[in-house]
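Progress narrative, work stream C.
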Amino acid sequence: MMETDKNACAQVGDIAQLISAQNKRFIFRLILDGKFETHRGYLSHNELIGKPWGSRVYSHMGSPFILLQPSMADILIETRRNTQIMYPKDIGFILLTMDIGPGKHVIEAGTGSGSLTTALAFAVGSYGRITTYESRPEFQHLAHKNLERLGLAERVDFKLRDIAEGFDERNADAVYLDLPNPQDYIQQAKHALKPGGYLGSILPTTNQVSTLLIALRRSNFAFIEVCEILLRYYKPIADRLRPTDRMVAHTGYLIFSRSVVADVSGLESLGQVVEENILTEQV
C-alpha cells in the first residue's frame, strides 16, 4: 500500500476547516486532545489528525462534514472583528497592484482587526516584514490574537501609537493607509517609502478620494490610479448558468500611487497612462 504524503493529510498544528451539509464553515487549529463543538455534535481533533484533506467526517451525533484546508479568503472572512474588515476581492487586487510578495517590507497604518495585516504577512513570507501601526489598544490586541492564531504574528511588528509624528522605518517597499483621512499623512508615508515605492489607501466616498488626490499630487506622487472592484458569482449549474441573486458590489474606492524622485508637477496626469494603455490594448 502506497504511503500517503503527510502534506495530503491533516497534521497537528494545521489550520482546518469543516464544512457542514448546510454549507456552514468552521475554522480552527488542530491540537492533540482538542474538541470541536457545534450544535450538530462534537468532533475529536485526534480523529481528524491523519485524515486526508477532502475526507467526509462525522460528529458524535452522525452529522457529516467535509474536512479541508481553508483558503486565505476563507480565513479573512472568518476573522474575529471589532471593526469593518476589508474584503478578499479588494485585498487580492491590493497585493498584486502594490507588488507585495516574498521578502518585501510593508508598512500599514490602521491595523483594525488585522484582516489586511493577515494577508500582508502571508504574502511576504518568512523573509518579509510587516510593520503595522494602530492607535487603539483594543484593536491592536484583537489583531495580534488573530495573527497568533494563524501562526503569522512573528512576521509582524505591532506598534501602538499615532502616526502623526511619522513612521520609524525607511525605504519600505510599500505603505498602506487604512485611515479615514490619509491625506493628512502623505508626507509621513513619503519619508518611509523607498524611491519608487507604492502607496495605497481605501476610502468610502468620492469626496474623500478627491481630497487624497490633491494631496498626492502636491507631494509628487505619480502613476495615480483609482478603482473599485465589483464581484459577481454565478450559480454553478451547467444547464441554468446565471448570476446569483446578490453580488459583492461597492466596498470602497482603492487608490494607488508611486513615490517618485523626478518632478512631475508639469504633467497633467501620469495616472492617465494606465487607462490609455488599457484602451489601446482593447482596440
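Work stream C, second folded protein:
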Amino acid sequence: MPLGQWTQEYCCGCLETWSEGLSRRGFIKVGLSGLIGMLFADWLVQQPLQAQGAAKKAKSVILLWMNGGPSQLDTFDPKPNSVNGGIFKPIKTRVPEVQFTELLPQLAEHADKLAVIRSMVSRETNHQRAQYFLHTGYLPQGTVEHPSFGAIIAKELGDEHFDLPHFVSVRGPSFGAGFLGATYNPLVVTNLSQPVENLLPPQYVTPDRLERRLFLLRYLEGKFADWTKDENQQRHLVAYNKALRLMRSPLTKAFNIAEEPESVKQAYGDNDFGRGCLLARRLVEAGVRFVEVYLDGWDTHQDNFTRTQKLCSVLDPAFATLLKELQERELLDSTLVVWMGEFGRTPRINQNEGRDHWARGFSVVLAGGGIKGGQVIGATNEDGTDVVHRPVAVPDLFATLCHLLGIDPNKRYYTPNGRPITIVDKGQVVTELLG
C-alpha cells in the first residue's frame, strides 16, 4: 500500500508497524486527512491563525434573519387607516404612541427595549442580490466576494485562544467569509434536535486509539514541516489543534440545549427557530461573537396573511423570550440583537392575497448592545408606499453596527489581487440609535 502498513491501525485499531518509506505525497495525505472523517470536516480547516482585537461596546451579535423578506405592514409598521394595511389590527406596546400589529403581542411588551427602523431603503429586490447586500453591506460584484458581517466580527473581535467558533449559523445557508478566506467561515448547525455532529469521535474510536492516531499525526506533520514551511500546512495544524480543543472543552456544553429546563424550552417555542434562539443565547453566554438564526418562509407572494400569521406565531415568543433572558442574565447590554430580512413586502396587496418584493421602505429592528430602545426611527407615509422621514440606507446600518462594536468601518481589507475594500461602503452612523 502506498501509505505503508500504518493503515492497519487506521482500519483495525492496532498500531503495530508502519513504513519509513512514505512518499512526500504520502506524508501530506496522512498528515492532513487522518482525522478529517471524525472531526469538523467543514469547519476545522477554517480557523484563524490570528485574530485582531478592538475596543468594543457590544461584544456579540445575534442576527435573526427573516429569509424571503417579511412584511413590514403586518409586523412593525401597521397602517390601519389604509387599504394597504391588511387584516391585522394594531395593538399598543409598552411605549406610548408606538404600535405593532396584533401578531406580536409578546414583543409589544418589550418595545421599550427595541429600536424600530421603519425607513430602511435599498436598491435590490432580487432575493439573492438583496440577501448578499444585507449580509455584507455591498452590492454584488462579479469579481469580488465580500465577507459577511459575521465573518468580519469573527476576524475583528475573535480570540484565537477561545475554544468555540466565533461565527455560528443556525439552520441557514449563511453567507461566509468571502475574500477573507475560509478561516472566518461559520460553523453551521443544521439539526437542533440532535447534538452537534462530530463533537465526539465515533464510538468505535476509543480514547486510546484516538491518542495513537494523534501521535502518528504529530509525527508525520513534524516530518513534513522539516521539508516545507507551506502556509496551508500550518493552517491545518492550527485547525486540528483548534478542533481538538473544541472536542475537549467544557464550553461545548453550550450546544446542548437539552440541559435547559422544560419551561424555558417551551417559552422559546417547540420549533427550530425557538430552539435556535435558545442556542444563540447559550452561545453568546459562552462567549461566541456572532450567531445567525434563520427563519424561512417570508416570501409571501400568495396567501400573505395566513402565512405571516403562522410565522409570527413562531417569531413572537422566541424573539421576546430571547430579549427577556438576555436581560435577566445581564447580557443584553453587551449583545446586539438584529431582526431583518433582505427587504420588505409591497404595500399593495396582489390578486393572490399576497405581497411582493419591496425595498423602498421596510423595517429593521435592533435591541441591546448600546441601542437606545423604546423608539421608532424614520417613517413611511400613510399608505406605506414611500419613506417620508429619515431614510436609512444599508451602508448606514452597517456603519452603525460597526460603531456599536468598536470596529472601524473605514478599515481597509485587501482582496487576493491587492484591491483595497473598506469594511463599510460610505455609510453614516445613525446617531439616533445610540444609547
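The mean pLDDT is 85. No further action is required on this item.
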